[in-house]
Amino acid sequence: MEVQEKMEREVSLKELFWNILFAWRKLICFGVVFAVLLCGMKYLLDLRSDSAASAPDLEQLEDELSEDELRQVIEARNLKERIEEYEQYLETSVLMQLDPYKRQVLELQYYVETDYTFNYTQDTERDYTSDLMSLYYNYIMSGEMSKNVIADAELSQSQANISELWSVAQAGTSISIKITCPEEKKMDAIAKSIKEQLSTKETEYQSVGEHKLKLLGESKNVVVDTALSDRKNTISNNIVTLNTQLNNLKANMSDLQLSILDSGQDEAEDEKEQEISMKPGISFKYLAAGCVLGIFLVCAWITCTMIFTAKLQNPEEIRTLYGVRLLGEVAAENGRKRFLSVIDDKLLTIKNRRRKTLSAQQQMKVIAASAALSCRQRGIERVYLTGSEYEKIDARTLELLKNELRAQKLKIEEGANIYYDAHSLERGTEIGNMLFVEQKGQSIYDEIYNELNLAKEQKNYIMGIVVLV
Q1: Which of 5, 93, 244, 293 has its CA 20 to 30 A from that of 416?
Q2: Positive or negative, the Cα torsion across 146, 148, 149, 155?
Q3: Contacts of 130 (CB under 8 A, 6+ apart)
Q4: How far is CA 25 from the centre of its chain?
Q5: What is d(CA 97, CA 184) in angstroms, rounded to the nearest whole number?
Q6: CA 413 – CA 96 distance, rounded (Å)
Q7: Which helix (H) or strand (E) element contains residue 412?
Q8: Which helix (H) or strand (E) holds 329?
Q9: How distant, in Å, are the alpha carbons of 186, 270, 273, 289 from that of 277?
């Protein structure tokens, strides 16, 4: 019988695809681990760079200055801060954006009429008029009224901005409310909200003393607000004055003082920017990249394992590589339940959707029947079971195979790898009929070559190979 020569093994892309799918646990695990690792590394690097960038040693530079020089720098910083506050107020305040010469004002005038009377001939009661006036004044100036006005009129302004546009004057038992609203169309809604709230308060304040709150007048006017004009001019003049003081102070500073002053300003600006955009945090981009990297590494590892592995990967390779009959493949029993094994079962069902699924018992019956037919044709009564990794094969599955062969009236003997076990070789050669049992992912290609070639050299009849998957 000719000795089997080695052949190059081909990798099945279909088998590679399914091997990757069945490794879904590793894909998830490595995806999560690398996502956390990559994101964590990026966070640590950002944290380190942030610390390094935000640590220009101003303290060491300031130590080189004299007390007078340091005082000048501190004074200059204070001037710059005041200038920035004024400029920011001019830019952000709604009141400062108004035209003082065309200011639209809503004015409501109220009069409080009480039932209090003074009688010299009777015991006098305490005059509660001033208490009522204080209650109304405080409520109008409180944040509650302005908050309700913003909600009722659906204003886009904040409560802080509205408070600047709101003024209240009290004289005796009269109250004057003046409101400026940049949203001209909302004037009627504002007036309605104020009148409803004061009407409600009139009912509540009756417990203080009997009175009537009368609306004397409601008007909308365009006025010249000289106070607003003066206020804007005052702030602008303050900015000019402070800039002049700052320039005079900087003119007498050394290069080191100017450098420290500018560094302090740059540091403050950088801190604001870092708080918004450069502050270290979790990057979802790196999370996704880490997850993809972990999945790619698992796929690459499975691919390399299939290409460079020394162990049997596919039962069909028995035919293509060794030219030996494949009697059948049997699913080896596995008593250990893996986590979420139902997913593996679903994947296996999809993989074998075009094949009829048989139980291990049925598969063994088919294999035993096929082997028995070959034995009857050749007048064989005894069969020797062996394999390259025979001692490592699942005992229950092997016992099931032997029982089915015995049921076919065949006498069974077994032994270890004939290439390494002399007694097994002698006993197998005496019987002369060998049935090899190998296991996917465990039997080694070269060991299978060695045992098959040795069996052929000893003129043994090779019935075929059963592969456990």
Answers
A1: 5
A2: positive
A3: none
A4: 21
A5: 15
A6: 104
A7: strand 411-414
A8: strand 326-330
A9: 37, 10, 6, 21
In this structure, what token pair is assigned to residue 275? 């708080």
225: amino acid identity, one letter: D
Residue with tokens 């999370």: 287
Tokens linked to 396: 């229950």
> Residue 174's closest CA among 213, 117, 122?
213
Distances 427 to 389, 434, 446, 457, 463 between C-alpha atoms, Å: 18, 10, 22, 15, 16
The three-point CA angle 460-465-469 to 5° equals 160
Q: Which ranges in 123-225 belong to alpha helices (H)?
A: 129-141, 143-153, 159-164, 187-204
Name the β-bridge partners of 468. 330, 439
Cβ pair 331, 348 in contact under 8 A: no
- First CA to last CA distance, the chain: 29
Handedness of CA 406, 410, 413, 417 (dihedral sign): negative
pTM for the model: 0.49
The pLDDT profile of the chain, 469 residues, written as one tens digit per residue, is: 455 555 566 777 888 888 888 888 899 999 999 999 988 888 888 777 766 555 455 666 666 778 888 888 888 888 888 988 888 888 888 778 788 888 888 889 999 888 765 554 444 567 788 888 888 888 888 878 888 888 888 887 778 877 788 888 888 889 998 888 767 788 888 889 889 999 999 888 888 888 898 988 888 888 888 888 888 889 889 999 989 988 888 888 888 888 877 776 555 555 555 544 456 667 788 888 889 999 999 999 988 888 888 888 888 888 888 889 999 888 766 555 566 777 877 877 777 776 666 777 888 899 999 999 989 999 999 999 999 999 888 888 889 889 999 999 999 999 999 999 999 999 999 999 999 999 988 899 999 999 999 999 999 999 999 999 8
Cβ neighbours of residue 365 closer than 8 Å, sequence gap 6 or more: 404
Instruction: Name the nearest CA neighbour of 401 among 350, 320, 322, 330.
Output: 330
Tokens of 385: 């079971």
Q: Tell me if 401 sits within 8 A of 437, measured CB to CB.
A: yes
- How far from the centroid of its chain's Cα atoms is residue 97's Cα? 42
At 154, the amino acid letter reads E
